[in-house]
Amino acid sequence: MDESLTLWGILLTLTALGLWLEHRFRWAARLGSSLIILMLAALCANLGLIPQQSPVYDTIYGTITSLAIVWLLLLVNLQDVRRLGRSALLAFALASLGILVGALLASVLFHSRFLEDTPRLAGSLAASYIGGSINFVGVGRALNLSDLLFSAATTADNLLTAIWLGTTLALPSVLSRFYPQAEVQEAATVTPLPTASAIAPLDLAILLSLAVAILVLATALHQFWPPIPTIVWLTTLSLALAQLKWMRYLRGTGALGMFGLNLFFTVIGAGTHVPSLMPLGLEMILFTTVIVFTHGLVTFSLGALLKLDVELIALASQAAVGGPTTAIAQATGRHQPQLMGVGITLGLVGYAIANYLGLALAQALRWIGLG
């Protein structure tokens, strides 16, 4: 029997199981499919059911993950940003600044523990908290973040994201007296995201060919100009293509992207040696806690000084830390349905800028001697 084919079957099954659990059970939805799939793969690897190294993993880690990043970035319509008010963009800028300040502070505090991995970890987590998992994976790969740190950071990331959602749901009520009275805001209209329903073979063929073409071109550009990482070219080319109007009519973009991204976490899980992971747990949680709560302090403090609406600040914070999905949960939980479109758009803006900011932060940390 072909061992590679068997391994492919196991990894695909773990991915499907994680996605099904997230869809079926509330507790699994709180954990998120990425963390569940990572844990399942780690369990299988540490029980000896799957190898911890394989050429199959190289294919997923390299080609498939790059294609997934392209597909997810093709969802970003930058024209939606024009429909946002200046206050929403300012609030998200403060949220992004808060993440960068938090990552810098965490790097200073924990440099003695993570040493040369500090810029890799800070850059990857900053990209995650400004954008989302797509940026965490993209920047982490570009910076050569180890599987062990990937696993520990993913676990801590999911924990802090859940805690911060509860925090931002409560903060507007607690802090409202320090902020100006909110004005009635109009609902922002955004380009609807394509759904996975009725995916046509032609759509899949076009999406596959476009993603492969972008990956080939990005790789060639990196070889021509080595100082610029492949992920930067990949991000830039994908965002440029995403602005073409006919891209809106292709179905299955998000489904392909999320599938590839979740398959990536089987590789990270398989490469995780659980006994080695345990000592990192508390320190990684503290590292991410410093980032997120410093972000909160910066965002809400500067937001008050600039007299921004506290509901909008909380939404921008959640759009950064959790992404479009938790931004919707924030707007719904605060009974602010008119902010749902704003939250989605801000989350997508995060996807667009996080790779650049995460890589820039990592380089800056090296320049100041923290890596």
TrEMBL record:
Coiled-coil segments: none
Bilayer-crossing regions: 28-49, 56-76, 88-109, 121-139, 159-179, 199-218, 254-272, 284-305, 339-362
Claim: Ligase is one of the keywords in the record: no
Family annotation (InterPro entries): DUF819 (IPR008537)
Keywords (A to Z) from UniProt: Membrane, Transmembrane, Transmembrane helix
Keyword Protein transport attributed: no
Protein's recorded name: DUF819 family protein
Organism per entry: Thermosynechococcus sichuanensis E542
